[in-house]
């Protein structure tokens, strides 16, 4: 049999397989790099898209916050106007009360009792005056208690002094104003008509 040397052929086959392996490894590295690059570009695009959406949402939130601020200002203005309207309504409803109050003040004063000072704060009343006797002050307090416009008379102080050989009782009273029961429209019209 002839002797054939297979070593160079094997060596060449080994070199060819190593080149093929190197080419395959380089191709795998290139493909892996492309995949990484494409996935990086895709993720970067998604991040940019989300950043744009976030910026859009932030702009819309800023617009809505301005609108909410304006709505809050309008609500505050509304509350202020409602408070003013309530004050005006209270003033309108209490306007005749001052006339009735002064009229009732005169009606409750018995003979021999004189007021030197009268003041009102909210619903509280303060009356300082002089009377011919302590009994007249008591009558005045009873009149106040039975009045439909006054309530709760409290005697703070009473001092008896002598002026021109007459005894005078100087007094200080406190009380409250009460709103009388509303008058029906029929009663009101009958009071007005002769």
Estimate the helix proportion, in percent. Answer: 55-70%
Number of strands: 4
Spans of at least 5 consecutive residues with low confidence: 185-190
Q: What would you call the shape? A: rod-shaped
Number of domains: 2
The N- to C-terminal Cα distance equals: 160 Å
Supply the number of helical segments: 3
Beta-strand percentage range: 15-25%
Radius of gyration of CA atoms, rounded to a whole number = 51 Å
Largest sheet: 4 strands, antiparallel
Order of helices and strands: HEEHEEH
Mean pLDDT: 82
In which order are the strands of the major sheet placed?
A: 1-2-4-3
Task: Please describe the structure with a list of short key phrases separated by commas or semicolons.
single chain, 194 residues, alpha+beta, Alpha-Beta Plaits, 2 domains, four-stranded antiparallel sheet, 3 helices, rod-shaped
Explain how this protein is built:
With 194 residues, the protein is α+β, with helices and mostly antiparallel strands. The chain folds into two domains: 11-95; 109-180, Alpha-Beta Plaits, CATH 3.30.70.2830. It has helices at residues 7-108, 134-146, 185-192; strands at 113-121, 124-131, 150-163, 166-177. Strands 1-2-4-3 form a four-stranded antiparallel sheet, covered by helices on one side. Strand 3 (150-163) and strand 4 (166-177) form a beta hairpin. It is rod-shaped and about 175 Å long. The N and C termini lie far apart (160 Å).
């Amino acid at each position: 049999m002839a002797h054939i040397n297979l070593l160079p052929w094997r060596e060449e086959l080994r070199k060819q397989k190593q080149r093929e392996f190197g080419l395959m490894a380089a191709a795998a590295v290139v493909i892996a790099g492309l995949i990484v690059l494409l996935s990086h570009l895709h993720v970067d695009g998604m991040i940019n898209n989300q950043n744009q959406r976030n910026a859009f949402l932030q702009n819309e939130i800023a617009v809505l916050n301005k609108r909410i601020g304006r709505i809050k200002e309008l609500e505050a203005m509304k509350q202020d106007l409602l408070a003013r309207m309530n004050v005006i309504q209270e003033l309108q409803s209490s306007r005749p009360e001052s006339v009735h109050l002064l009229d009732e003040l005169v009606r409750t004063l018995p003979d021999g009792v004189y007021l030197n000072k009268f003041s009102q704060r909210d619903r509280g009343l303060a009356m300082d005056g002089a009377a011919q006797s302590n009994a007249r002050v008591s009558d005045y307090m009873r009149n106040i208690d039975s009045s439909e416009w006054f309530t709760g008379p409290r005697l703070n102080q009473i001092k008896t002094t002598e002026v021109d050989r007459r005894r005078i009782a100087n007094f200080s009273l406190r009380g409250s104003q009460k709103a009388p029961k509303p008058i029906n429209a029929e009663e009101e019209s009958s009071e007005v008509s002769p």
